[in-house]
Amino acid sequence: MRARQLMREAWRSAISSKVSSLLVALVVGATCFIALTTVGRNAANEAALLAEFEGVGARQITVINSSEQDYINPATLATVAHLRGVQQAAALGRTTDVTNGAIPGTPATPLWPVYGEIADVAPLVAGRAPGPGEAIIGVSALDRLRFAAPSGFVQSQAGAQYPVVGMFQATAPFEDLNEGILIRAEDDTRLTQLRVVVGEMENVRATQSAIVSVLAPQDASKMQLRSGRDLVEQAFTLGGLTAQFGRATFLLILGVGALFVSSVVLSDVLVRRRDLGRRRALGCSRASLVALVVARNVAAGIVGAAIGCLIALGLGARSGVLPPVSFVVAVAVLALITCILASLPPAVFAAHRDPVRVLRTP
């Protein structure tokens, strides 16, 4: 039997056997739907997690000096900035709380002295760069301090005043600075925080060790070292466990689906034994009969897989969690392969029955 003739006969047979075809389509569709709404959700979350960890924030190293030793200084900052793999480095001084000097009662807002080029950390979006004793305000702090425009002045609790001459919007991973105000750090400003952005994730660990060697603190217990790499490794460990559970769940779903498909096909070939026996008696080969039974169920499975995937994607779009396209295609293909494998035993059983005995059976 030629392929085109086989597909035509399979389609006709699927339409004529509405109940069994509907059941096969329902089982395959349910398999795809359950897989996409359970394992697929995990795959979507994992993809989102990977995308987030590829961001700049995961490649940031932060050093906080809580000791009296000034190991974060212009010299060590320059050395760290020239380390291999370092994309960006900035040093901040001790935080001071300030308020809007013209409007009493505004909330206290952090002010950070920044050593080096402020524009590298916080690009200006309005006004001009600050000079000595001048400040620029973050986009979020502008509303918080009730500034109508980036002009005016802020005042510390000690009475120090800083004219505001511009507004900035910090880039990743320095977005937290948008909540405060920045001034230029003087040469004698005590720097308490070092932030480093590494170019590649695989270089974070080595760069972290190099930074510690450059800073060489006398009391390492008073140096806080934070790295996105640690969080990434923990997340990947958890993600690996989740992936193993997802694979096991997916295999279980496919196994249950295969059992149902096999039961439906076996029932169908028993019900249609006279029709299949007649085909054998008229010269249809065993291989053609097996192919016909399998193709008929695959045709129903394709319809079911398409419907199941579309419904799952529709629900995923509403919830905002869509699995990757490659995962959706893989689920549909594996569901159809499972349908083929589950249809083979009943099809082989039907093809090897004696057609004469089948036709004599009332």
UniProtKB/TrEMBL annotation:
Domain of life: Bacteria
Main location: membrane
InterPro entries, A to Z: ABC3_permease_C (IPR003838), Macrolide_Exporter_MacB (IPR050250)
A cellular component annotation (GO) from this entry: plasma membrane
Transmembrane feature ranges: 250-271, 292-315, 327-351
Membrane topology label: Multi-pass membrane protein
Residues of the ABC3 transporter permease C-terminal domain: 250-354
Keyword Iron part of the UniProt annotation: no
GO molecular function: transmembrane transporter activity
Entry keyword set: Cell membrane, Membrane, Transmembrane, Transmembrane helix
Subcellular location: Cell membrane
Keyword Zinc: no
Pfam families for the chain: FtsX
Family: Belongs to the ABC-4 integral membrane protein family.
The protein's name: ABC3 transporter permease C-terminal domain-containing protein
Organism: Bowdeniella nasicola
